[in-house]
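Re: that backbone. Tokens:
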């Protein structure tokens, strides 16, 4: 930031106003001169010349379009995003407590229902509600903070409580990882056994299937053969019964014939014949009885054979049904074993992958728990919270006794790269403005200080479409030291149309002209005043460039006449 003379910048700020004042002074001076001159002539009085010293200065002379606007200050926010959520594998709730004594919320996840990652084992999980608590506030709003300045001090109790919970969470994650590794070994053994069993079953599946189908078909054949044999036996028995019935009828007829012969002979008259006939009758009777007994036996056998038909038919039907159903089941079992064999490697790989995933998840939980602990230790350091930015503090989010929360920023600072001024530039002048241009700024609060800025944006739409004046908002980003600038301050922005740098200049009032030549009254070192011819150059309306005739630091006079009464 460069500081120039007040006279120079007041003129740069209010060029039109200065010109008006200059004209007014000239008019007033002329009137006074005429008035005093007339009085002097009437009274016979004299006029005196009054001199004012000014110094030849080296610097920049600038001309341009000046507009007024106000400051908009961007902010840098130091947030609190420390994750203090923890998990455990116990069935009871967390023993952590919120030590806040103010209305602020707890740490991340505190009291909001958020939960941390839970272990894959154990009967349950719980989330921490512990949070860090502010012991003292070490800076105030408006102070200029440097990176590393102590903003807050934390209570030792809250630090120890959170550290204990984070350590317990890490230890729990370590135990879960150990358990997951053991479960992985067990799962891999089981997966290997399943794979080998599937392959072994497939190796014997075809034989077992063929044996089962053979058994079923044999049962059908056997029962059908038994049924067929039973029907054949019945037919044979029926034939035998028919035959033996004929034989029985013949035997009965023979018996009856011999009995008639016996009855026709008198025992007393022909004993021999009688005895012969009697023997023949007995023989015929015995033969008939024997055939009848055989007939009865055949009838019994036939009855038994006919009785077996029902059970044999049932057995045959059951065997056929079994062939239909159990062959399908056998085929399904065969196909299931085939599928198991075809997918055995895939199933094994999946089991291995799941086992590895469980271990990887447990490792991630442990790494996360360790990272949270490490982040916590890095955050609390020696028990304080330090500034991450350099700049003026605009807001502090906490007071003594407050609990840190992710919903409340630690502090906010003025962003030196986001301090800007927006001004309205008329359509007649907007053509001279280009993004990237350097501008001069003078703020009302610091009229003797010159700030620089860069055009960072030009709006394509007009400021207000309801008026006849067309102007466009132009945003200028302030550069350099912005320590003393605050939101809402007003200032004049000059868009430079011409500028000469590092030149000598004096006030226009010190220059007198005679024809085409310019002169100044120079005060020498011995106090005498001499008239010096000078060569002038660019003028910003208040001061004029001295190209030749003077040196930096020379004293020249600005003269004006005052009438004596």
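Recovered sequence:
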């Amino acid at each position: 930031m460069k500081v120039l003379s007040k006279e120079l910048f007041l003129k740069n700020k209010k060029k039109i106003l200065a010109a008006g004042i200059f004209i007014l002074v000239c008019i007033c001076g002329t009137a006074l001169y005429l008035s005093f001159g007339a009085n002097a002539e009437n009274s016979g009085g004299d006029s005196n010349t009054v001199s004012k010293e000014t110094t030849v200065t080296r610097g920049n002379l600038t001309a341009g379009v000046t507009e007024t606007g106000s400051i908009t200050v961007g902010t840098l926010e130091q947030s609190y995003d420390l994750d203090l959520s923890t998990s455990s594998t116990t069935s009871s709730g967390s023993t952590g407590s919120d030590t806040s004594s103010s209305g602020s919320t707890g740490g991340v996840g505190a009291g909001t229902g958020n939960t941390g990652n839970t272990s894959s084992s154990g009967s349950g999980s719980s989330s921490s509600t512990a949070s860090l608590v502010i012991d003292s506030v070490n800076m105030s709003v408006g102070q200029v903070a440097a990176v590393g300045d102590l903003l807050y001090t934390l209570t030792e109790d809250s630090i120890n409580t959170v550290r204990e919970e984070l350590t317990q969470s890490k230890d729990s994650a370590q135990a879960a990882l150990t358990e997951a590794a053991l479960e992985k070994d067990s799962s891999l053994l089981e997966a290997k056994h399943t794979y080998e069993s599937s392959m072994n079953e497939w190796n014997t599946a075809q034989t077992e299937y063929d044996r089962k189908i053979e058994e079923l078909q044999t049962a059908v054949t056997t029962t059908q053969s038994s049924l067929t044999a039973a029907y054949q036996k019945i037919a044979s028995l029926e034939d035998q019964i028919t035959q033996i019935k004929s034989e029985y009828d013949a035997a009965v007829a023979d018996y009856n014939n011999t009995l008639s012969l016996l009855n026709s002979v008198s025992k007393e008259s022909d004993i021999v014949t009688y005895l012969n006939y009697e023997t023949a009758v007995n023989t015929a009777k015995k033969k008939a009885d024997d055939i009848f007994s055989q007939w009865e036996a055949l009838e019994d056998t036939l009855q038994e054979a006919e009785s077996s038909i029902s059970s044999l038919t049932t057995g045959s039907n059951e065997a056929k049904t079994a062939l239909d159903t159990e062959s399908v089941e056998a085929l399904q079992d065969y196909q299931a074993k085939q599928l198991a064999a075809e997918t055995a490697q895939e199933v094994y790989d999946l089991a291995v992958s799941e086992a590895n995933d469980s271990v990887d998840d447990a490792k991630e939980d442990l790494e996360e728990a360790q990272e949270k602990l490490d982040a916590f230790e890095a955050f609390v350091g020696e028990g304080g919270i330090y500034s991450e930015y350099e700049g003026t503090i605009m807001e502090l989010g906490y007071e003594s006794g407050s609990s840190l929360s992710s919903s409340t920023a630690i502090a906010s600072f003025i962003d030196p790269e986001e301090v800007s001024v927006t001004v309205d530039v008329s359509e007649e002048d907007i053509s001279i403005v280009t993004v990237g241009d350097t501008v001069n700024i003078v703020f009302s609060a610091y009229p003797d200080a010159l700030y620089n800025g860069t055009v960072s944006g030009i709006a394509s739409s007009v400021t207000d479409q309801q008026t006849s004046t067309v102007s466009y908002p132009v945003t200028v980003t302030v550069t350099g030291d912005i320590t003393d600038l605050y939101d809402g301050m007003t200032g004049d922005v000059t868009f430079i149309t011409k500028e000469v740098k590092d030149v000598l200049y004096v006030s226009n009032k010190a220059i007198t002209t005679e024809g085409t030549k310019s002169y100044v009254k120079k005060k020498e070192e011995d106090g005498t005043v001499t008239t010096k011819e000078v060569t002038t150059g660019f003028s910003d309306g208040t001061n004029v460039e001295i190209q030749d005739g003077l040196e930096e630091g020379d004293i020249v006079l600005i003269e004006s006449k005052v009438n004596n009464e």
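The longest helix spans residues 271-380. Residues 1-45, 89-125 have pLDDT under 50 and may be disordered.
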